[in-house]
Amino acid sequence: MKVIIVGCGQVGATLAYQLAKMTHQVVVIDQDENAFDHLPEDFQGRIVQGDVLTKTVLHRAEVNGADALFALTNLDPLNALIAHIAQSEYLVPIVAARNNDPRQLRLQQAFGVTVIGTPGWRADSVVDLLSGESVQAIRLDHNAEVVIYKIVVPAKWVGYNLDELIPTNQVEIIKWVRNGGDLSSEEPHLLAAGDQIYLRAEADVIETMRTQLDARQEK
After folding, report:
1. 7 contacts 71 by C-beta, under 8 angstroms
2. Distance between CA atoms of 2 and 106, rounded to whole angstroms?
3. Euclidean distance between CA atoms 199 and 178, whole angstroms
4. Domains of the chain
5. For 21-42, what is the mean pLDDT?
6. 213 contacts: CB under 8 Å, gap ≥ 6
7. pTM of the model
8. 173 has which bridge partners?
9. What pLDDT digit, counting tens, does each position of 116-161 carry?
């Protein structure tokens, strides 16, 4: 996949290096030339220096052919705007914006893009987004043991009740979205393809759930 990373701080550089090692085509954009010093010497991707809000910079990064773009600067409004532009103007299939300050979260969510949180956010959480995993870690909660996950219901789950697939007694359902509208998580609903379910859970609970779902699929 061709991935564009905007912001070459520690988080952006770590993700860029990890994805390049996985043989993805990676382009890193940053306005500060010195920021590229965060990249290891054996980084195999491309770098583009310049203001990302300038169309020529995005074109140099070949945004029109990108499969994913992650906005990982230290400025939350900028991250949301970049991700929104990539999604709405350039139709990049996978976009996400980094959140540094929880107070800015609502503003970022208003742009309608996936928001991934810090501190403590790990670069490998983005790998879930690229791999198309149905269960994606998108933000660490205040408690480092608890993660907020986004579940995008695939076709193979259609017709099940949520509690048939997810240990609802061990997770907290935060939000359930279907066709742009909210569903009550307190009422039973059959799962529909494309449903987006946000939940808070401990990481080991989710890993157990993933293992059980994989086993169910193999039967």
Report:
1. yes
2. 29
3. 15
4. 2-122 (3.40.50.720), 146-218 (3.30.70.1450)
5. 94
6. 134, 165
7. 0.64
8. 199
9. 775 445 555 666 666 555 665 555 444 445 567 778 888 888 888 8
